[in-house]
Amino acid sequence: MSDTLAILAGSGGLPVALAAARPAAVCITFAGVSHELFRVTHEHRFEKMGALFDDLKARGVTEVVFAGSMSRPPLDPQGFDPVMMALAPRLLAAMQGGDDALLRLVVQIFEEQGFTVRGAHEIAPDLTVPEGLFAGPQPSHAALQDTERGADILSALSPVDVGQGCVVAGGLCLGIETIQGTDALLEFVAQTPKHLRRGARGVFVKAPKRGQDLRVDMPAIGPETLRNAARAGVEGIVLQAGSVLIVDTKSVLQEAEKESVFILGRVL
What we know:
This protein is α/β, with parallel strands linked by helices. 37% of the residues lie in helices and 20% in strands.
């Protein structure tokens, strides 16, 4: 028997982890969006939001959680149902802004339909990184200094809705996470000439933007993040404690040990 939660799934390991935590939850995927779920209740289309809302209500769903990566979809106006036709002006306007504006509107729309929007950290709180050293060797004094610099950079970027991460080495910013994501940032940093790093390995700092709605856009790392961080040559990864998800914790811990990259939870 299904419970009252629906997992609205995108790609990546987070929907899988949530489905494991709530095995009776309704699992919804979307046409054109890849996913790794083994169990799918139904696939819907973005153009048919009315059908999605009706389906969730018919299944007794009262809570929804958004999980996984989901790029802005191409929409076919000819396929809009009446509900989507009514929502389209608001959605299209929000799409012209940053991700935060769009995600806040999506939350508002689901709440208008009577659903409670939950965060992944509310469904499975053990997925968030705690404060303190989570994995790997103790960070150096230089790494902790770079962490403070990284926190300042992310705080300055928050008002303009740019990104959730940056890499700092020797006090210098080697890269900022933009819409291309964490992997692209770390790949870019890996190409940094050695003389620009001044002999410092540096740290990758990741945290939510100030005021970010963690119910729909909580930052996350996984095993691939550790591998890419090692390729980028950083000493460690510093995460906002309690506000960043770790997907596939066992593999993350194994990669941190293998690559000698620390993971530190901090209040930034």
